[in-house]
Design goal:
The complex is a heterodimer of chains A (403) and B (270).
Chain A lengths: L15 E2 L2 E2 L5 H18 L2 H15 L5 E3 L1 H7 L3 E6 L9 H15 L3 E6 L3 H13 L2 E7 H6 L1 H9 L3 E5 L6 H14 L4 E3 L10 H9 L1 H13 L6 E5 L4 H7 L9 E9 L10 H4 L1 E5 L2 E5 L24 H9 L3 E6 H15 L5 H13 L8 E6 L7 H7 L5
Parallel strand pairs in A: 4-14, 5-6, 5-8, 6-7, 9-10, 9-14, 10-13
Antiparallel strand pairs in A: 1-2, 3-4, 11-12
Helix pairs in contact in A: 2-4, 3-14, 4-5, 4-9, 5-7, 9-11, 10-11, 14-15
Chain B lengths: L2 H12 L3 E7 L7 H11 L5 E4 L10 H12 L4 H14 L5 E5 L1 H7 L1 H11 L3 E4 L8 H9 L3 E2 L2 E2 L5 H10 L4 E4 L12 H12 L6 E4 L5 H8 L4 E4 L1 H9 L7 H17 L4
Helix pairs in contact in B: 2-4, 2-12, 3-11, 4-6, 5-6, 10-12, 11-12
The chains are: A alpha/beta (403), B alpha/beta (270).
EC number (chain A): 4.2.1.20
Protein name (chain A): Tryptophan synthase beta chain
Pathway (chain A): Amino-acid biosynthesis; L-tryptophan biosynthesis; L-tryptophan from chorismate: step 5/5
Chain lengths: 403, 270
């Protein structure tokens, strides 16, 4: 029996993953969260709801996504075989849509006519605008003013899909501030508004339901590995912002003790520079956005600014389940710097003809480091969580090119 | 008897309502707060709520967000705020002081450390906006051991069943959030507030104070008439930004706002 079997029972009834998680919100939201929890518990046990979700994933999202052997890149690196879980091939170009399709169904069943979301890179915003359009629901997306600038194509995509993008000027003008503003909106409009949180963070039950909606990727990958590799992989690798693509891949393997797991945080310009977004590597436990987890904060408990080349990882917290998986040692949390990320990004373009998202390139960067240290008979699955079209302006700028 | 209990008992005897101003500590600079606190007492405050600045004040509207930013510009820490309370106590031993803020600065200081320092400073109660009773067991026990009150929020969305739990966890007074929204929001439905307050009054003997949306004498009187007291924040904190280039006028302007409310409340039939 797996020594990690107990992890499958988390979160507990109060939404705790060990000492992490919980529901740290102002009183006005408590009732809405209780209702959401009750609704999710009921619907997730309802075969009709599950069938509707599965049908949307198959016919709208385009699942299952392939598990692709990056043979040429693996050969170039000269070590372990690298397999890519192609979440970039999902409708809207990232794993985010798995969760928004699920939460949109919850919104539909709740009868609420308005959807709000926060977004960093814009992938979750696009995925939310997409499902809102499909259901004919009004949609407003909060996005930090900094991110609006550096992710212009996604801002326009959301507008094409009929969503209103609200540029957030408070604080550091990035994802955390967008989340503050979305929470303020929700508190004000809680009766008619469904808040689609984009990652495995926030107050209970969000970390639970976002994980479960994303776990389809891990379930598929596990089956695909058994078929295509003939056994379970030796390790899984995924990037960590809030950590939803990582948990989606990891969770169905949690009790496969022989499968190692690596979550890769944004090392930015290096931990010693202070310019990074790596709370699990360099932060400490605290409470923000409704849950207790590892945070980037100063000695007085103020949240500190983060830096990452990728807007989607530019967040000072991380999902509470990751905090617990770190403490119990089930997952190892490593770093990739901006420079390593750019190299891995270029590699995948060059050797595999795939333009990866800068977020996912963090996972690729670690694979590039790990693979050469292992034998050719070892197999790594990297979650290619998103495609990189949205990032070409950022990459061009890094290369000193004006498009 | 605690200062908060004594205050409400005296008010009840006099047939008066509690007037509870909120200001953000350290706004616009650390040495301003003590002056404002004394001025507010002079203008009729019964209890003072001091806001602890936080980088991510999720439950607050733009006015108090900006106040937090101004206070943090000068690096106001939770421990500094307790220092302000201690300074206030040097010349005022009767007006209760309650800290209101977010959990993370308290966690950073450590529960025990905070509670010990708070007791030494002469603090009376604590309201942590993002700490509901379900998550507060350990913290509330530590506060109680030092005779500090744990104040919790009730809201328009709080069910009766939930309110019972909240009332059971609360000491001092209950803070009813009058609207669904953030601090400083405009629209106030007095009838809806009255209906909820009636419901909650039936399940607790604790005083019920109402906050959010109180701007002037008229709104203070309207809510004072149906509660045990009113809390006013953004209408005071807004003066700091408004008078940024004439900082010497901030305290008098706050006093004027509060004094108008005091007079309106004292005209209410006891």
């Amino acid at each position: 029996m797996s020594k990690y079997a107990d992890l499958l029972n988390l979160p507990d009834a109060q939404g705790h993953f060990g000492p992490y998680g919980g529901r740290f919100v102002s009183e006005t939201l408590s009732h809405a969260l209780e209702q959401l929890e009750e609704q999710y518990t009921r619907l997730s046990a309802d075969p009709a709801f599950q069938a509707e979700f599965d049908k949307d994933l198959a016919q709208y999202v385009g699942r299952p996504s392939p598990l692709y052997h990056a043979e040429r890149w693996s050969n170039h690196l000269g070590g372990a075989q690298i397999w890519l879980k192609r979440e970039d091939l999902n409708h809207t170009g990232a794993h985010k849509v798995n969760n928004t399709v699920g939460q949109a169904l919850l919104a539909k069943y709740s009868g609420k006519q308005r959807i709000i979301a926060e977004t960093g890179a814009g992938q979750h915003g696009v995925a939310t605008a997409t499902v809102a359009a499909r259901l004919g629901l009004k949609c407003q997306v909060y996005m930090g003013a900094e991110d609006v600038k550096r992710q212009a194509p996604n801002v326009y995509r959301m507008k094409l899909l009929g969503a209103e993008v609200i540029s957030v000027e408070s604080g550091s003008k990035t994802l955390k501030d967008a989340m503050n503003e979305a929470m303020r909106d929700w508190v004000t409009n809680v009766d008619d508004t469904f808040y689609i949180i984009g990652t495995v963070a926030g107050p209970h039950p969000y970390p639970l339901l976002v994980r479960n909606f994303n776990a389809v990727a891990g379930r598929e990958a596990r089956e695909q590995a058994l078929q295509q590799i003939g056994r379970l992989p030796d390790a899984l690798i995924a990037c960590i912002g809030g950590g939803s693509n990582a948990l989606g891949l990891f969770h169905p393997f949690i009790t496969d003790d022989e499968v190692e797991m690596y979550g890769i945080e944004a090392g930015g310009e290096g931990i010693e520079s202070g310019r990074h977004a790596a709370p699990l590597n360099a932060g400490r436990p605290g409470v923000l956005h409704g849950n207790r987890t590892y945070l980037m904060e100063d000695d007085a408990g103020q949240i500190t600014p983060t830096h990452s080349i990728s807007a989607g990882l530019d967040y000072p917290g991380v999902g509470p389940e990751h905090a617990n998986l770190k403490d119990v040692g089930r997952v190892k949390y490593e770093l990739a710097t901006d420079a390593e990320v750019m190299e891995a990004f270029a590699d995948l373009c060059k050797y595999e003809g795939i333009i990866p998202a800068l977020e996912s390139s963090h996972a690729l960067a670690f694979a590039k480091r790990l693979a050469p240290t292992l034998g050719k008979d070892k197999h790594l699955i990297v979650n290619l969580s998103g495609r990189g079209d949205k990032d070409i302006m950022t990459v061009a700028k890094m290369q000193g090119i004006t498009l | 008897m605690s200062r908060i209990k004594t205050t409400f008992a005296n008010l009840k005897e006099q047939g008066r309502k509690a007037l509870i101003p909120f200001i953000t500590a350290g706004d616009p600079k650390p040495d301003a707060t003590l002056e404002y606190m004394h001025a507010l007492v002079e203008a009729g405050a019964d209890i003072i709520e001091l806001g602890v600045p936080f980088s991510d004040p999720m439950a607050d509207g733009p006015v108090i967000q900006k106040a937090c930013e101004r206070a943090l510009l000068h690096g106001t820490r939770l421990i500094d705020v307790l220092g302000m309370v201690a300074d206030f106590r040097k010349t005022n031993d009767t007006t209760p002081v309650v800290l209101m803020g977010y959990l993370n600065p308290v966690e950073a200081l450590g529960y025990e450390n905070f509670v010990n320092e708070a007791a030494k400073a002469g603090l009376d109660g604590v309201l942590v906006v993002d700490l509901p009773p379900e998550e507060a067991t350990e913290f509330s026990a530590l506060l109680a051991a030092q005779q500090l009150d744990s104040i919790f929020l009730l809201s328009p969305t709080t069910t009766l069943e939930r309110a019972k739990k909240i009332c059971a966890a609360t000491t001092g007074y209950l803070y009813y959030v009058s609207i669904k929204g953030v601090t400083g929001s405009a629209t106030l439905d007095v009838d809806a507030v009255a209906e909820k307050l009636n419901l909650f009054a039936g399940i607790t003997d604790l005083p019920l104070a109402v906050g959010f949306g109180i701007r002037d004498g008229a709104t203070a009187a309207a809510l004072g008439a149906i509660s045990d007291g009113v809390i006013v924040g953004s209408a005071l904190v807004g003066k700091v930004a408004e008078l940024a280039d004439q900082p010497e006028k901030i305290a008098p302007a706050m006093s004027q706002v509060l004094n108008e409310m005091r007079q309106a409340l004292d005209k209410l039939p006891g």
